[in-house]
Amino acid sequence: MANAREMTVGFMPLFDSCILIAAAEKGFASDENLDLHLMRETSWASIRDRIAVGHFQAAHMLGPMPIAANLGLHPMAAPMICPMALNLGGNAITVSKDLHAGMLANGHVDDLEPHGAGRALKATIAARRAEGRPALRFAVVHFHSGHNYELRYWLSACGISPDSDVEIVAVPPSLMPDALELGRIDGYCVGEPWNTISVDRDIGRIVAVKARIWRNSPEKVLGVSKPWADDNRDLLDALLRACYRAAQWCGNPENIEELAGIMAAPQHLGVEGRLLLPELTGRINPAPGVTVPVEDFLVLSRRAATFPWQSHALWFYSQMVRWGDCRHSAENAEIARNSYRPDIFRQALKPIFAAMPAANLKVEGALTVEQDVGTTAGRLTLGPDGFFDGKIFDPDRLEEYIASQMPGFATA
Q1: Comparing C-alpha atoms, which of 311, 297, 206, 272 is closest to residue 16?
Q2: Which domain holds residue 337?
Q3: Are residues 238 and 323 in the same domain?
Q4: Scanning 86, 121, 357, 386, which has the fewest C-beta atoms within 10 Å of its C-beta?
Q5: Per UniProt, what is one Pfam family of this protein (predicted)?
Q6: Would 332 be classed as within a structural domain?
Q7: pLDDT score at 377
Q8: What are the two backbone dihedrals, phi and then psi, of residue 270, each rounded to the nearest 5 degrees?
Q9: Whether residue 236 is found in the same domain as residue 344
């Protein structure tokens, strides 16, 4: 590319980095005169810190991470924005074979149904406590992650206290299967392919999936330092267009085999391509020889999957407040909301007439079926988007929602 504009972009070895990787590998970035240098990292903390010190201009990032940075919850906090989402869904909860056996003895069925799995886990925890055994240890990829908040949401909705009935620790995604095999942890919540890998190695079993805890729910985003975005708006706009086109390509079922091949490469995930097919097809294997179809397991382009909904940001914020990461105030809520920037997304994609919502926020969990929504261009379908416990999050009633989850809740 003559006079191409260079950008260094960080990513973690998870399948939901595919939009950034496809933007580079399939020429969508070069179409925008961008030369993307992809840098694979080993931990989310490193991703966060390298954005903060300017090593990366943009990165594959946990959905809550820009919010936590802007609230000053990171030791190396730097202002960040999320101008684009990268996917919906894609995570699962895997447990050790020993814990799985205990759950089976307490009525668990390998159907990925979150209510039944939660009941069996609660009974297993009670039995272990009666035997004087230590609390179960679950791993998440980072404390300011969708994984942490969805695991906690599922546990608490099933009557299990995430703070007293189990222990939750942070472990990098690619280390989770090894930690499970060595008995360092009893289970974990992570994105693919690290759940399927444990089943394939016969060291773990998948008991629940994000797509059934909260269907079509937010996961990874494109994270960018705010000062860089302010000074390089043309570059950011070009990156968003390249990523949007890449998302359309990745989300096309006709490209599944090629996409799996790209992502399996050593410089990306470094795994066998067959281990990526369950996520791409939605045919999940919770145990060897068992296949459960999961609709919308991973959504890359449909249902406005790339739109940075401010209601998603506020739901993450509500969980930060719920679990003691920060105190609630009108100022903090505004910081969280404005960490997601649909205005930048719209402006960048306006030249290519991309279909996008007319609103910046929506009620989460209210759609039981697909529904066409108002758009600025084209046609767009959202939903279903239900929480497994039937609850609804209305961003206009934020304090009421937080209070419903926190007895004795009081604002700052």
Answers
A1: 297
A2: 5-89+217-262+301-351
A3: yes
A4: 357
A5: NMT1_2
A6: yes
A7: 72
A8: 65, 40
A9: yes
